[in-house]
Amino acid sequence: MKKIFNLNVFCGHEISYDEEISTLKRARHKFFLFYINKPVNYHIEFRLFNCEIFFGLYDNLNTAIIDHWIHFLHYGRKTGHVKFEKNFYFDEEFYIQQYHPDLDEYSCFLEHYLKKGWMKGFNPSAFFDNDFYIKKYSESYEQDLCPFEHFLKVGFSKGNIPFEFRQYSDLYSSDLKITELPVYEAHKEQDYIVPSITPAQMENDSFTIFIPLGLGDAVAIEPIYRYLKINFPDKKLYSILYQNQAEICKYNRNCDGFIIVDKNKDLRPVLLEVVTKTVIVNCVINGITIVCGKSSFLWHNSVTKYLPTTYFDKQNLLSAMSVVAGLPEIDVQPIFWSLPSADEFNIFFDKVKYVVIHCSSADKKKNWDSKNYTVLARHLISKGFSVVEIGVEQFIICEHQNYYNFTSKLSFQEIYNLIKNAELFIGPDSVFLHLSNCAKQKAVCIAGPVKGFYCGYKKMFSGQLPCSGDYFKGINIEYCYPENGKKINSIKVSEVIEKVNKLITIEG
Question: Which residues neighbour 263 within 8 Å (Cβ) at sequence distance 6 or greater?
């Protein structure tokens, strides 16, 4: 084998500084030899180069990624080409702009920071504060260790925070379990709409709920707004949301303002503005990587009870997110706040029996086959029901006059009213299942396997209960799971029809 520079041989499962590096040992890749020019700190640079390997964005370690890593070590960091570098907290442009006169002979600025910069008080980015970290966590590690290195190796997995802000979990904590919450309205106006605000418009000493994840999460988490407003009625309550999440939540009478962010941009600059005024109620489950455009970062709480690989074992989305935020474990029915005076939200069908079916989840592993949905729809039509398909794309192929294709045509308000007045809802674990839960509608959930990742370790859930309240208790819902870890298409149409028959009366 051709020698490249001064080679050092590393075995991927033997070089670990801690147990997480052992994730390089996979069934498909039992043994890795990295012929590389040894960096200043292999563990830190590899995590900065491509942290997604450790936090679940790749099913298997791709050899192309290793090739890019080797290329970066040999050429990129020496020439300033960082094409393949993806990092969370080291910002080379920031480092150069802030400390250019002191960078002297170093061509690799990360190397400068790790060897000299941190001891001079230099920060690796605007999102990591050396002085704050050393002061806050001085008792947990040796003082001659680089704080940034400690954070990447140990700190974030313990919930250490990289710059100063107040989290709800630091101020309040509870071991209570809440199974009932009253319907509470802080804003009594009939046509109340949550305003979109900027961080500059926020009031001091407020709360801000942080949920930059899926649409279903935005629905499931509604009881947390109620809980906070009931217990802190005099404090303003804000939320950081994507635009499509804001469309779901825009009539929530317990929210005082949305900070709407672009899902293709880095959220950390917004957080830097927000945290100066507010207490963060961080509902993101620990270990989840938040991807914003080309950048990504980890968000952790000091409450590390639930991880992506554990919370579905015993909990639903709402109860897990409330616990990681430092709140009591909340397991109640969410409310979908609508605008009752809006004429466009009227029901489409009057005195017609219909079933709403949603087929296309964003997670393709949750999608039952189009042919199966078509057979199911035709069966329901033959029994006297109309079938209404919702979602982003059409799955059901049917030309019968009692089949209605409303995919990509309705607002969330219209879909909610459609589901609420149906005989039944059928679909995968998605935002519309959570809307059905809000409506206390009967439902059949065709539940495909769900992947949970943490530090590169993968777990498949095949019996998950995503919704809180009645659906978590098994009231008004039937779940269809694939047997013995099989894929979702192993579920037969006859099994779904059997579940449907348990919930609604089908003549003949």
Answer: 212, 242, 243, 292, 293
Tell me the per-residue pLDDT of 323-340, one tens digit each, with 9 for 90 and over.
989 999 999 999 999 876
How far the first Cα of the chain sits from its last, in Å, is: 73
Amino acid code (one letter) for 89? Y
Structural domain boundaries enclosing 440: 343-503
Q: Give the whole-angstrom CA distance, residue 40 versus residue 118.
A: 14
Clarify whether residues 371 and 467 are in a common domain.
yes
Which residue has tokens 């694939």?
A: 482
φ and ψ at 343, to 5 degrees?
-70, -30
Pair 351, 495 in one domain: yes
- In a shared domain, residues 325 and 191: yes
Same domain, yes or no: 294 and 378: no
pLDDT digits (tens, 9 = 90+) for 78-118: 544 443 344 567 887 888 888 877 666 666 777 788 778 88
Task: State the Cα–Cα distance between residues 299 and 161, nearest whole angstrom.
Answer: 9
pLDDT at 481 over 60: yes
User: Cβ-count burial of 69 within 10 angstroms (0-12 exposed, 13-18 middle, 19+ buried)?
Assistant: buried
DSSP string covering 456-495: TEEEEESS-----THHHHTTTEEEE--GGG--GGGS-HHH
* 496 Cβ neighbours under 8 A, 6+ residues apart: 372, 376, 426, 444, 446, 480
Backbone angles phi, psi at 202, to 5 degrees: -75, 145
Q: What is the CA radius of gyration of the chain?
A: 25
Average pLDDT over residues 144-168: 81
User: CA quadruple 428, 434, 440, 441: dihedral positive or negative?
Assistant: negative
Which stretch of DSSP H or E encloses residue 357?
A: strand 354-358
CB 456 within 8 A of CB 55: yes
Angle (nearest 5°) at CA 177 between 172 and 178: 95
Indicate the helix (H) or strand (E) that contains 37: strand 33-37
Cβ–Cβ contacts within 10 Å for residue 22, how many? Answer: 15
137, 243: one domain: no
Residue 350: CB atoms within 10 A of its CB come to 7
